[in-house]
Amino acid sequence: MLFNSIDFAIFLPIIFLLYWFISNKNLKFQNLLIVVASYIFYGWWDWRFLSLILFSTIIDYLIGQKLGTEKNQTKRKILLWTSILVNLGFLGFFKYYNFFLDNFITAFSFFGTEINAQGLNIILPVGISFYTFQTLSYTIDVYKRKLEATQDFIAFAAFVSFFPQLVAGPIERATNLLPQFNKKRQFDYSKAADGMRQILWGLFKKIVIADNCAQSANIIFNNSSEYSGSTLVLGAIFFTFQIYGDFSGYSDIAIGTSRLFGFNLKQNFAFPYFSRDIAEFWRRWHISLSSWFRDYLYIPLGGSYGSTWLNIRNVFIIFIVSGFWHGANWTFIVWGALNAIYFLPLLLTKNNRNNIAIVAQGKLLPNLKELLFMFLTFGLTVFAWIFFRAENIEHAISYISEILSASLFKKPRFPKMYDALITLRLIGLFLIIEWLGREGQYALQNFGIKWKRPFRYAMYYAIVFIILWFGGKEQQFIYFQF
Fold first, then answer.
1. What's the sign of the alpha-carbon dihedral 339, 342, 348, 354?
2. For the packed helices 128-143 and 50-69, what is the interaxial angle rounded to 10 degrees?
3. Nearest-angstrom CA–CA distance, 246 and 213
4. How many CB atoms lie within 10 A of CB 431?
5. What span, in angstroms and rounded, lies between the C-alpha atoms of 244 and 241?
6. pLDDT one-digit tens code per residue, 435-466
7. 149, 64 in Cβ contact below 8 A?
8. How many CB atoms lie within 10 A of CB 144?
9. Residue pLDDT, tens place only, 357-398
10. Which of 20, 184, 190, 475 has its CA 20 to 30 A from that of 329?
11. Which of 326, 389, 395, 438 is labelled catalytic?
12. CA 412 to CA 323: how far, in whole Å?
């Protein structure tokens, strides 16, 4: 079920009414309703994969209970690794089986040995990368004694399958979200209104920005050999805003929807395209995944401590694994490695934490130095996204080669150019609102909030009008494939 669909527009009010008006006085019934709603939400796509979520839920619930009582450290490690291997085993099979098989065959053929093996026609379960990491955070934190094992199976099942963030995040930690299922929740109008504003902005990002950018980006990337370098640059910029509008839009809708039900999810995007260096970009992009890898992989590896070579190794591991998490293609691995190369100079010169606060905080405009570094960081990010979007390495190289040719100085031309110019104007409006609202958790949280009610509501209705009038052709959320 898509957030930007009629199905969800009917589904959400029904669950909302049942949640607050029928089950309001019973916490267990509220949690059970969330589980049922979440399974309906997920099963709307393909009911067969509900068994995977249920199996993962049962396994990690039982392992968590055992970890809570077991004192023998060897047995505790066995329990932890059982959870890790089961969860990553499912993820590896559905997501990476054919990738490893194809590369295994290629490697042997390079040495003159032919292997006859056929890949499997495997359907990737939507959201498996997200809920797998979410359940792993539970068993790891219980193992580390950062969290008490829950005894409430319904609450745990609701935590694993919570429908707003089930299929594309944010990836919530058990330490933050699970305790919220054990506390009585009461309707809070101000929290619900804030949630509705965030949902509205998320829909604007997805329907107006991402879906319109997708139409131009797809034309250019899918026919890149036919266009000039300047047109390919335009295509890369469109994809840059497509993936941001798509994924951060999903996160905004998920977080806003959660607020309607009394839950607080963590911010997943913090205006990353206003970053002044790559380190700041990665503190602001897909925060839930970046922090997950930091806490459960980077720090256990030693983090930034140790020798220079260990620092370099750890940085490459974290970025390459992050790239590989996104998909079974060498393009994602190169994308991750490229970001590691961007990041290393900052780490080795100890400048990776220079830009913690939001750019030009308390000011209307950035200074010249900040502006230049923002453009430089944005340019590096756009370049890296080419590998992310390309079909394969050869496609990425040919795409970049054409950009670096003399055709870079030609006037951009491709079908739907008129529509693309309208999209660029919408991106300009989007960036203005994002810039003015950059000190909030999302753009509309503070932007216009102090205006008189008629002006504030006029702005909200204007956004609704833009969504309905300028909304692009419906596109599936990009991160559903991850």
1. negative
2. 10
3. 10
4. 16
5. 5
6. 999 999 999 998 888 889 899 999 999 999 99
7. yes
8. 11
9. 999 998 999 999 999 999 999 999 999 999 999 999 999 999
10. 475
11. 326
12. 31
